[in-house]
Amino acid sequence: xxxxxxxxxxxxxxxxxxxxxxxxxxxxxxxxxxxxxxxxxxxxxxxxxxxxxxxxxxxxxxxxxxxxxxxxxxxxxxxxxxxxxxxxxxxxxxxxxxxxxxxxxxxxxxxxxxxxxx
Length: 118
Known about the structure:
By secondary structure, this protein is mainly alpha-helical. About 45% of the residues lie in helices and about 10% in strands. The protein has 2 domains: about 1-55, no CATH class; about 55-115, 434 Repressor (Amino-terminal Domain), CATH 1.10.260.40. The protein has helices at about 20-30, 50-55, 60-70, 75-80, 85-90, 100-110; strands at about 1-5, 10, 30-35. The chain has a 3-stranded antiparallel β-sheet, covered by helices on one side. GO terms for molecular function: DNA binding.
Protein backbone atom coordinates (compact mmCIF):
# COMPACT_ATOMS: atom_id res chain seq x y z
CA UNK A 1 0.00 0.00 0.00
CA UNK A 2 1.42 3.37 -1.00
CA UNK A 3 0.05 6.89 -0.68
CA UNK A 4 0.89 9.56 -3.23
CA UNK A 5 0.62 12.74 -1.21
CA UNK A 6 0.08 15.20 -4.11
CA UNK A 7 -2.23 14.57 -5.85
CA UNK A 8 -3.62 12.53 -2.98
CA UNK A 9 -3.99 8.96 -4.23
CA UNK A 10 -4.00 5.60 -2.48
CA UNK A 11 -2.56 2.70 -4.44
CA UNK A 12 -2.28 -0.99 -3.72
CA UNK A 13 -0.03 -2.94 -6.13
CA UNK A 14 0.31 -6.72 -6.16
CA UNK A 15 1.90 -9.29 -8.44
CA UNK A 16 4.66 -9.40 -11.02
CA UNK A 17 6.06 -5.99 -11.86
CA UNK A 18 4.81 -4.28 -8.67
CA UNK A 19 8.32 -3.11 -7.70
CA UNK A 20 8.89 -1.59 -11.16
CA UNK A 21 5.55 0.23 -11.04
CA UNK A 22 6.33 1.58 -7.57
CA UNK A 23 9.76 2.71 -8.75
CA UNK A 24 8.14 4.59 -11.63
CA UNK A 25 5.64 6.28 -9.29
CA UNK A 26 8.41 7.33 -6.91
CA UNK A 27 10.27 9.07 -9.75
CA UNK A 28 7.31 11.33 -10.47
CA UNK A 29 5.55 11.70 -7.13
CA UNK A 30 6.18 12.04 -3.40
CA UNK A 31 5.18 8.52 -2.31
CA UNK A 32 4.97 7.20 1.24
CA UNK A 33 5.08 3.40 1.52
CA UNK A 34 2.61 2.17 4.13
CA UNK A 35 3.43 -1.50 3.66
CA UNK A 36 5.28 -3.76 1.30
CA UNK A 37 3.57 -7.03 2.21
CA UNK A 38 0.83 -7.80 4.71
CA UNK A 39 2.92 -10.62 6.22
CA UNK A 40 6.01 -8.42 6.41
CA UNK A 41 7.36 -6.75 9.57
CA UNK A 42 7.71 -3.50 7.58
CA UNK A 43 3.96 -2.86 7.72
CA UNK A 44 3.29 0.62 9.07
CA UNK A 45 0.02 1.32 10.83
CA UNK A 46 -1.60 4.03 8.74
CA UNK A 47 -2.38 6.04 11.90
CA UNK A 48 1.37 6.21 12.60
CA UNK A 49 2.30 7.43 9.11
CA UNK A 50 3.35 10.96 8.26
CA UNK A 51 0.45 11.06 5.81
CA UNK A 52 -2.13 10.33 8.53
CA UNK A 53 -0.65 12.88 10.95
CA UNK A 54 -0.56 15.70 8.40
CA UNK A 55 -3.26 15.09 5.80
CA UNK A 56 -6.09 13.30 7.55
CA UNK A 57 -8.73 15.55 9.06
CA UNK A 58 -12.33 14.97 10.14
CA UNK A 59 -13.39 16.63 6.89
CA UNK A 60 -11.18 14.44 4.71
CA UNK A 61 -12.48 11.36 6.53
CA UNK A 62 -16.06 12.53 5.98
CA UNK A 63 -15.32 12.95 2.27
CA UNK A 64 -13.67 9.55 2.13
CA UNK A 65 -16.64 7.79 3.71
CA UNK A 66 -19.05 9.71 1.47
CA UNK A 67 -17.11 8.65 -1.63
CA UNK A 68 -16.76 5.09 -0.31
CA UNK A 69 -20.55 4.91 -0.30
CA UNK A 70 -20.66 6.49 -3.79
CA UNK A 71 -22.65 9.52 -2.65
CA UNK A 72 -22.58 13.13 -3.76
CA UNK A 73 -22.73 15.91 -1.20
CA UNK A 74 -26.37 16.42 -2.22
CA UNK A 75 -27.11 12.72 -1.61
CA UNK A 76 -25.54 12.91 1.85
CA UNK A 77 -27.43 16.12 2.59
CA UNK A 78 -30.72 14.38 1.84
CA UNK A 79 -29.82 11.36 3.97
CA UNK A 80 -28.39 13.29 6.93
CA UNK A 81 -30.58 16.39 7.01
CA UNK A 82 -27.47 18.59 6.92
CA UNK A 83 -27.30 21.19 4.14
CA UNK A 84 -24.97 20.46 1.20
CA UNK A 85 -23.14 23.77 1.71
CA UNK A 86 -22.35 22.75 5.30
CA UNK A 87 -21.08 19.36 4.12
CA UNK A 88 -18.76 21.20 1.74
CA UNK A 89 -17.53 23.38 4.60
CA UNK A 90 -16.89 20.34 6.80
CA UNK A 91 -15.00 18.55 4.02
CA UNK A 92 -12.81 21.57 3.21
CA UNK A 93 -12.11 22.37 6.86
CA UNK A 94 -13.95 25.71 6.81
CA UNK A 95 -16.27 24.37 9.51
CA UNK A 96 -15.21 22.19 12.45
CA UNK A 97 -16.95 18.81 12.50
CA UNK A 98 -18.82 18.29 15.76
CA UNK A 99 -19.80 14.97 17.32
CA UNK A 100 -23.46 15.89 16.80
CA UNK A 101 -22.94 16.36 13.04
CA UNK A 102 -20.67 13.29 12.88
CA UNK A 103 -23.45 11.24 14.48
CA UNK A 104 -25.90 12.35 11.77
CA UNK A 105 -23.39 11.53 9.03
CA UNK A 106 -22.56 8.19 10.66
CA UNK A 107 -26.22 7.20 10.74
CA UNK A 108 -26.69 8.26 7.09
CA UNK A 109 -23.59 6.32 6.00
CA UNK A 110 -23.87 3.29 8.28
CA UNK A 111 -20.54 4.08 9.94
CA UNK A 112 -19.49 4.71 13.55
CA UNK A 113 -19.25 8.43 14.45
CA UNK A 114 -15.79 7.90 15.99
CA UNK A 115 -14.42 7.03 12.56
CA UNK A 116 -14.65 10.69 11.54
CA UNK A 117 -12.01 11.78 14.05
CA UNK A 118 -8.35 10.82 13.42
